[in-house]
From TrEMBL:
Name of the protein described by the UniProt record: OLC1v1015904C1
Coiled coil: none
Gene Ontology BP term (one): defense response
Pfam families (UniProt xref): Bet_v_1
Protein source organism: Oldenlandia corymbosa var. corymbosa
Signal peptide start and end residues: none
Domain Bet v I/Major latex protein residue range list: 15-127
InterPro entries: Bet_v_I/MLP, MLP-like_ligand-binding, START-like_dom_sf
Source superkingdom: Eukaryota
Record-linked PANTHER family: MLP-LIKE PROTEIN 423
């Protein structure tokens, strides 16, 4: 079946949204989706950090256990921030290989990530 990919992008004004040095803000900023870094619907995941790009503001995770691995042979998530003055473009890239040809595409998960970013930005802008 081979490796497939999906890319989702969202523009934000708040540069702190892409700041990987403040991960504790996630649960505070997006309370409807995350509680203490656990998904509300009790899905579980275990991943390893494959690469951290300080200069490129990126991080790449390889999923190794959890619900996603029941559907996909390979699942890699990359988060990248492009900054241009006050404008920031956040890109999520999902690379995956399905276990079964008719298995689901991870579009819902990609939308979830994009909405989390929107929640975090709204939280940061309300704090300002």
């Amino acid at each position: 079946m081979g490796l497939n990919g999906m890319i989702g992008k969202t523009a934000v004004k708040d540069s702190g949204v892409g700041d990987s040095k403040r991960p504790h803000d996630l649960a505070t900023a997006t309370t409807e989706k995350l509680q203490a870094f656990r998904l509300l619907d009790d899905r579980t995941a275990k991943q390893i950090i494959v690469e951290v790009g300080e200069v490129k503001q990126s991080i790449k995770f390889r999923m190794i256990e959890g619900d996603l691995m029941e559907l996909y042979k390979t699942f890699i998530i990359t988060y990248h921030v492009d900054t241009n003055g006050e404008d920031n473009l956040i890109t999520w890239t999902l690379e995956y290989e399905k276990l079964e040809e008719l298995g689901p595409h991870p579009g819902t998960l990609l939308n979830y990530f994009l909405h989390v970013i929107e929640d975090i930005e709204a939280h940061h802008l309300n704090q300002a």
